[in-house]
Amino acid sequence: MSSSCRVLVVTNMFPHEADPARGAFVKAQVDALRELGLPVDVMHVRGDVSAGNYWRGIGPLRDRVQSFHADLVYAFYGLTGWMALWQPTPVVLSLAGDDILGTPNGRGGITPKSRLGIGLSQWAARRASVVCVQSEEMRARLWGADLRARSHVIPYGVDPKRFHPGERDQARALLGIPPDEVTVIFPNTPAERRKRIDLAEAAVAAVRETIPEVRLRVVTKVPHASMPEYYRAADCCLLTSDWEGSPNVVKEALLSGLPVVSTDVGDVRTWIALSPESVVSQRTPAAIADGILHVLRQRKRVNPQPFIDAFSSQAVARRMVALFDGALRSARG
Fold first, then answer.
1. Secondary structure, 3-state, the chain
2. For strand 236-239 and strand 182-186, is the pairing parallel, antiparallel, or unpaired?
3. Which of 33, 115, 17 is nearest to 72 (CA)?
4. pLDDT value at position 1?
5. Residue numbers in the chain where pLDDT is lower than 70
6. Which domains does the chain carry?
7. What is the pLDDT of residue 110?
8. Shortest CA distance to 36 belongs to which of 259, 322, 262?
């Protein structure tokens, strides 16, 4: 596949020195597009530092579009999409999760700040040339039947050249994990309430009553280049979130051959259906513990082949190029 499209990627998630794992999936997508021969530039908007950076970034974004001679803007996240629409080239918007689903407030609702973010994200989705979401759940939350009908469910891709099975003992030696430890990894940011580290800790504590040598290892703010070794070294990957879009940790684990125990969030059920070694669990410590015990007793690795065509970064990039070309044809009439 070839395309002459010049793409400016605008994202609020991208690896940087303070958090080398943040937005690694965006970088993987950028790399895959470049492998296909597309000229790609990246503008990283630090919305995590200040929400005002979205507004302040509109002028620099316009300048970047002109200086790079971009044919279109590929925006990751709803607020970034809102920002991208204040310039003339077509916008392809990829919604991430909480930009449509909201941020839980811990009392069964969502925060006021995320309500505003949802409104701006929906506004951006209605005006973007192309809209992509991570799961059917997200598509169902879009406002308006016409918007839902024209949206595309395309999960973020994972690079199988990096995430693939490998030697468990070698990975453990590199990471300093004892060879006899039963290792359950939690590759998420524990401070994020929706990730539910409390559930993970309670479930592993229950497992420990049966398997005393089990250990929960929280993997956070690790350079993304090191993550494949964690998946190869572990016995189980655990996701206990209240909600997700299309969690990349699940996809990375499956491509790496690691069984997963996950709550039923985002598109997890779609992928775990292709992995009999893995488990979708109810959101209780006892049910999650049962899932972990099932995985640990099987001691089987996952066959990654079914997932390569489904969500490899290369497969996703090819789909995106087709959408880019379609957006440009529509814009040119």
1. CCCCCCEEEEECCCCECCECCCCHHHHHHHHHHHHCCCCEEEEECCCCCCCHHHHHCHHHHHHHHHHHCCCEEEEECHHHHHHHCCCCCCEEEECCCHHHHCCECCCCCECHHHHHHHHHHHHHHHHCCEEEECCHHHHHHCCCHHHHHHCEECCCCECCCCCCCCCHHHHHHHHCCCCCCEEEEECCCCCCHHHCHHHHHHHHHHHHCCCCCEEEEECCCCCHHHHHHHHHHCCEEEECCCCCCCCHHHHHHHHCCCCEEEECCCCHHHHHCCCCCCEEECCCHHHHHHHHHHHHHHCCCCCCHHHHHHHEHHHHHHHHHHHHHHHHHHHHC
2. parallel
3. 33
4. 47
5. 1-3
6. 7-157+312-332 (3.40.50.2000), 168-307 (3.40.50.2000)
7. 84
8. 322
User: Tokens 């530039």 identify what position?
Assistant: 41
- The pLDDT score that the predictor gives to residue 223 is 82
Distance in angstroms (rounded) separating the CA atoms of residues 177 and 171: 8
pTM: 0.84
What is the side-by-side strand order in the sheet with 130-133?
40-44, 7-11, 72-76, 91-94, 130-133, 152-153
Pairing of strands 130-133, 182-186: unpaired
Query: What confidence tens digit (pLDDT) does each residue in 157-180 have?
Result: 899 999 999 999 999 999 999 999
Q: Quick: pLDDT tens for 2-57.
A: 567 999 999 999 988 888 778 888 998 999 999 999 999 999 999 989 999 999 99
